[in-house]
Specification:
Layout (H helix, E strand, L loop, with lengths): L30 E4 L1 H5 L9 H14 L3 E5 L5 H12 L8 E7 L2 H10 L5 E9 L2 H7 L4 H20 L5 E9 L6 H15 L7 E7 L6 H14 L6 E7 L6 H10 L4 E4 L13 H10 L11 H12 L20 H17 L33 H12 L8 H15 L5 H12 L7 E11 L2 E10 L3 E9 L2 H9 L7 E10 L8 E9 L4 E8 L2 H16 L1
Parallel strand pairs: 1-2, 1-8, 2-3, 3-4, 4-5, 5-6, 6-7, 7-8
Antiparallel strand pairs: 9-10, 10-11, 12-13, 13-14
Helix pairs in contact: 2-11, 4-6, 6-7, 8-9, 12-13, 13-14
Length: 554
């Protein structure tokens, strides 16, 4: 491990000093091809059954894939039977092309074309081993032999498919592994296969350039793609396709740069299922486009349901930090993040739903992919004042004054730290009620009544229970109910504070009480405390908030 240079060699790419892809942007969706049922399925410890593959196929069609690689029908009777079931039972939508993979061997090609009999639209995906390691180590073939094998396979596919004119046929060819193949040789083989197929602008060939094993940084892959597109003898005859894996963890980036470099088509799987570290994650690339205002042409609006189906059928799990589908990706625990999100959401509430999306830390609106706002902010010991206020507001309708946020946030944070865990919204609300709402110790408001006293004054009559226990029978005037009650308490030594702030609002419909009020009081030493009152009567809510705040000073 200390001297990797003796064991590993750096990846070498094409020389392209005048590359143009860095100045391009992705402004439209590519042609998407799902390989979940072939590449993804063959990577499962427990492959999907035929009914499960059918359910996955139907979901891929619903999402909007128009090209779906359904299997390797020459490899097993199960794969062949699944292909026949889709076609014979009319389960393939008219605008969807089924794609099947085959090696360049005569008996396998014949079996493959046979499996597609009666299909409306079909893609035969031919591949041959072009990179040095595979052609020499695995197959023991020369460059010339591989080239001959590829051309012979393409010619046979053309012959067999021309004999079945009722199907709209396409040929796809993959030089495996393109990224590790000498680029000029990969081009030579692709040109020869295209010629054998009779490719032209009206009879295009799909030239799939697999990054089967990520070997270099994404920019080197983009250089290869741009070089290939530039040097192809007739660019109009080919659809350039990407098939990216994720060995270096940069499959998404390699795909995006490959599109910028001139590719037209992308093969991948839902959530990146595939061999080793996986295939390209189509969900991430599509939603990355979506976040930039580009319609990806795939319906991912119900992403939680798509994820649930995927996990059930593949027996795989989507990581909780997956860029869009993970449980925690729209969640903030950090206090500063929570405060920024809350401010952004509050501003958006005022702007309206048609305003451009501009919320700190959230690249897209969770609702656009079927996620809710409920778990955007979650509370643990690292959380801050804004996060707690957000939960109380969004979950329970308590719109705390901003000056109250630090006091509440600190108390809830200490509680989470003591328990050593994340707090649920219900736990946050329970602790807030316990320490801030309608507090009755040491003082409790038992009865209260008020009448106008003239000149804008209010006369109050109240009964207040204090330790002893003892009930004070009070009367006083003030410029409002709160002021009158403070004046009534003062002669008895229970009003060693002044009221510094008061707010109130109606709670959301359906709650047990109609109003919430918040009062801040300050004692003679300058110490302050906030309290909350909840009551069906907004006047009583304010008085209960006063007592809650005063009790918190004790």
């Amino acid at each position: 491990m200390r001297q990797p240079g003796k064991k590993y060699r750096p990846f070498r790419t094409v020389q392209l000093p005048d590359r143009t892809w860095p100045d391009r942007t992705i402004d439209r969706a590519p042609r998407w091809c799902s390989v979940d049922l072939r590449d993804g399925n063959q990577a499962l410890a427990v492959p999907m059954s035929v009914p499960e593959k059918l359910e996955m196929f139907q979901e891929l069609c619903r999402i909007g894939f128009k090209e779906i690689e359904i299997g390797f029908p020459s490899a097993s009777d199960t794969e062949f039977a699944f292909t026949r079931q889709l076609i014979e039972k009319g389960l393939v939508p008219a605008d969807v092309a089924v794609q099947v993979l085959v090696q360049a061997r005569e008996h396998l090609i014949r079996r493959t074309v046979e499996s597609l009999h009666g299909a409306r639209k079909a893609i035969v995906h031919l591949y041959t081993p072009t990179n040095p390691a595979q052609r020499e180590i695995v197959f023991g073939l020369s460059k010339e032999q591989v080239l001959e094998m590829a051309v012979k396979g393409a010619k046979l596919i053309r012959e067999l498919t021309d004999a079945r004119p009722d199907t709209e046929w396409q040929l796809e060819f993959s030089p495996e592994t393109f990224v590790l193949t000498e680029t000029d040789y990969a081009l030579e083989v692709c040109e020869a296969v295209a010629q054998a197929w009779g490719a032209n602008a009206k009879r295009k060939i799909i030239l799939n350039l697999p990054l089967t094993v990520e070997a270099g940084t994404p920019n080197t892959h983009a250089d290869q793609i741009e070089w290939f597109c530039r040097n192809l003898s007739d660019r109009s005859m080919a659809v350039i396709s990407l098939h990216t894996h994720n060995d270096r963890g940069t499959g998404v980036a390699a795909t995006e740069l490959g599109l910028m470099a001139g590719a037209d088509r992308v093969e991948g799987t839902l959530f990146g299922n595939g061999e080793r570290t996986g295939n390209l994650d189509v969900v991430t690339v599509a939603l990355n486009m979506f976040s930039q205002g580009v319609d990806p042409g795939l319906d991912l609006g119900g992403l939680p349901a798509i994820r649930a189906l995927y996990e059930r059928l593949t027996r795989m799990t989507v990581h909780e930090r997956h860029p869009y589908a993970g449980d925690l990706v729209f969640t903030a625990f950090s206090g500063s993040h929570q405060d920024a999100i809350k401010k952004g959401m509050d501003r958006r509430d005022k702007q309206g739903p048609e305003a451009p999306w501009d919320i700190p830390y959230l690249t897209i609106d969770p609702k656009d992919i079927g996620r809710s706002y409920e778990a955007i902010i979650r509370i643990n010991s690292q959380s801050g004042k804004g996060g707690v206020a957000y939960v109380l507001d969004r979950e329970f309708g308590y719109d705390l004054p901003k000056l109250m946020h630090p006091e509440v946030g600190q108390l809830i944070g200490q509680h989470a730290d003591k328990l050593g865990k994340e707090l649920s919204p219900a736990e946050i609300m329970e602790h807030f009620r316990k320490h801030f709402v309608n507090l009755t110790q040491p003082m409790e408001l038992v009865e209260f009544d008020s009448d106008p006293a003239g000149k804008g004054m209010v006369a109050c009559r109240a009964k207040v229970r204090i330790p002893g226990p003892k009930v004070l029978d009070l009367r006083a005037e003030g410029n409002g109910p709160i002021s009158a009650l403070v004046h009534a308490l003062d002669p008895h030594g229970w009003a060693g504070f002044t009221v510094k702030d008061y707010r109130s609002h109606a709670l959301a419909s359906g709650t047990e009480s109609a109003a919430a009020a918040y009062v801040c009081v300050q004692d003679k030493t300058g110490r302050t405390a906030w309290g909350c009152g909840v009551d069906a009567n907004i006047e009583l809510a304010g008085l209960r908030a006063l007592f809650s705040a005063a009790n918190r000073l004790e």
